[in-house]
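Design request, tokens follow.
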């Protein structure tokens, strides 16, 4: 059984809200709902599924699948 888990990625520049980072969410809809609630509440997004701080990255590479399809 093969499952495809698509995510919505957001690349943020460093600012008063935090350092530069790559965040991901389950979907674009969840991101937009969170962004609207963040603006009203003044909170930094706590509903994100994950975050990678760019100052911690050495590099980004694309790895191809070893399976031939």
């Amino acid at each position: 059984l093969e499952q495809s888990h698509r995510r919505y990625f957001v690349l943020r520049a460093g600012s008063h809200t935090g350092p530069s980072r790559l965040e991901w969410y389950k979907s674009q809809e969840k991101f937009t709902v969170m962004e609207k609630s963040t603006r009203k509440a003044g909170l930094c997004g706590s509903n994100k599924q994950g975050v990678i701080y760019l100052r911690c990255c050495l590099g980004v590479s694309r790895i191809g699948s070893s399976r031939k399809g």
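Comment from the thread starter after seeing the answer: thanks! Strands lie at 8-12, 21-25, 50-53.
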